[in-house]
From TrEMBL:
Protein name, as recorded: Peptidase
Classification via Gene3D superfamilies: Clp, N-terminal domain
InterPro entries, per the entry: Clp_N_dom_sf
Organism: Streptomyces hebeiensis
UniProt biased composition (Low complexity): 199-212
Domain of life: Bacteria
Residue segments, region Disordered: 1-33, 188-212
Amino acid sequence: MTRVGSPPAPAGLRASGRAQQPPRSRAHVEDDGRLTAELAAALSGARRRARRDGDGQIDTAHLLHSLLEADPEVRAALGGVGDTGGDAPVIRVLGYLVQRSIGYGLRWHGRVEDSGAVPVVRSRAGRTVAGWSPSAVAALGHAWEWASRRAEPRVHGLDVLAALAADHECRAVEVMERAGVDTRALAGRLQRASRRPSSRQVSSRQSSRQVS
C-alpha cells in the first residue's frame, strides 16, 4: 500500500488552562483521568486481548477490536460507512478480528507493528510506550491532539478511531478494508467532526459575548 502522511503529532491536551501531555507510559495510557469510561475500558480490554493471544505488544487491531466492543459511538460511526450501512460493517469487521489467532493474523505474531508514524511520536512525545506497538502509540497521540482541538477535557473513542482510520499502513485499517470499509471516507468524516467546536467551546463563546 502507498504510505499516506500521518496527522500532526500531539501538541498536548489543554484543560483548565494547563497543558496536558499525551501519556508516555503504559500505566498512564490505561489509567488516565482524561479518558472517557468507554475508552478506558477499551484500552484495558486491548491489553487483556493481547495477553490472551500471546502477543508481546498491543497493536491497532487489538485496539480496534476493543473499541468496537466497548464504545457504542465507535460502533455507530463504523456502521455508517459500509456499502449496506447499519450493523453490517461492524459485524464484518468483528468477523475478521475474531479470526486473528487462527487466520490472517498469524503472520503478525512476533512482529512489531510500525506504520511509519512512530518517528513523529518519538520526536514530539519523547518516547514510545512499553507494551504498545509504535502504530498504536501514534494513534493514541493523535487522538489526544484531536481532542485538544475541540478543547475537550476528555479523549473519546471516536478520536482514537479517527486516528486509526487515518493511518493507512496500520493493521486496524487492513482489517477494516478487508471487511469492505472505506477507511479514507471514515477518516475524513471523523476528522471534519473533530474540527467542529465542542459544546464547551460554544458555551464559552456565548458567555464571552454576554459579558461583552
